[in-house]
């Protein structure tokens, strides 16, 4: 430790400090702006991706709400059909009990089949819309990432060529 203190050279210290200051000035002048530009572009890409994901989430919530509304309407329609079937059944019991039971069962089965087909159609439409939105989101995210990666690759290649020339 004493040897280091005794061997201290003010001239060497001065030149090292000067070289450090020049290096910092060069880095600020030539490297700071491209780095900050790349960081800003990346932040914008991430913000866009987050906004798209939030929009997709809201759209999915809206689709789920519509699905619930459709299911409730289908249940109400089913209940109304079942109620109608029961009223018809009670009226027909007075005329012919066996014929009324067969007719009521037939109407209930038709109501169930109608409800099931409407439910399946609604689910298929919902799946189609969700898959379309998912594909659009994935396409936008991939475009953003690929353009950023290309720009970053080109920057690295240019910096390597500059370093080889120097």
From TrEMBL:
It is a single-pass membrane protein. It comes from the Bacteria. The keyword Ion transport applies. Its main location: membrane. Keywords: ATP synthesis, Cell membrane, CF(0), Coiled coil, Hydrogen ion transport, Ion transport, Membrane, Transmembrane, Transmembrane helix, Transport. InterPro entries: ATP_synth_B-like_membr_sf (IPR028987), ATP_synth_b/b'su_bac/chlpt (IPR002146), ATP_synth_F0_bsu_bac (IPR005864), ATP_synthase_B_chain (IPR050059). The chain crosses the membrane at residues 12-32. Residues 46-91 form a coiled coil. Signal peptide: none annotated. It is found in: Cell membrane; Endomembrane system. Component of the F(0) channel, it forms part of the peripheral stalk, linking F(1) to F(0). The b'-subunit is a diverged and duplicated form of b found in plants and photosynthetic bacteria. F(1)F(0) ATP synthase produces ATP from ADP in the presence of a proton or sodium gradient. F-type ATPases consist of two structural domains, F(1) containing the extramembraneous catalytic core and F(0) containing the membrane proton channel, linked together by a central stalk and a peripheral stalk. During catalysis, ATP synthesis in the catalytic domain of F(1) is coupled via a rotary mechanism of the central stalk subunits to proton translocation. F-type ATPases have 2 components, F(1) - the catalytic core - and F(0) - the membrane proton channel. F(1) has five subunits: alpha(3), beta(3), gamma(1), delta(1), epsilon(1). F(0) has four main subunits: a(1), b(2) and c(10-14). The alpha and beta chains form an alternating ring which encloses part of the gamma chain. F(1) is attached to F(0) by a central stalk formed by the gamma and epsilon chains, while a peripheral stalk is formed by the delta and b chains. F-type ATPases have 2 components, F(1) - the catalytic core - and F(0) - the membrane proton channel. F(1) has five subunits: alpha(3), beta(3), gamma(1), delta(1), epsilon(1). F(0) has three main subunits: a(1), b(2) and c(10-14). The alpha and beta chains form an alternating ring which encloses part of the gamma chain. F(1) is attached to F(0) by a central stalk formed by the gamma and epsilon chains, while a peripheral stalk is formed by the delta and b chains. NCBIfam families: ATP_synt_b, PRK14471.1. Belongs to the ATPase B chain family. This is ATP synthase subunit b.
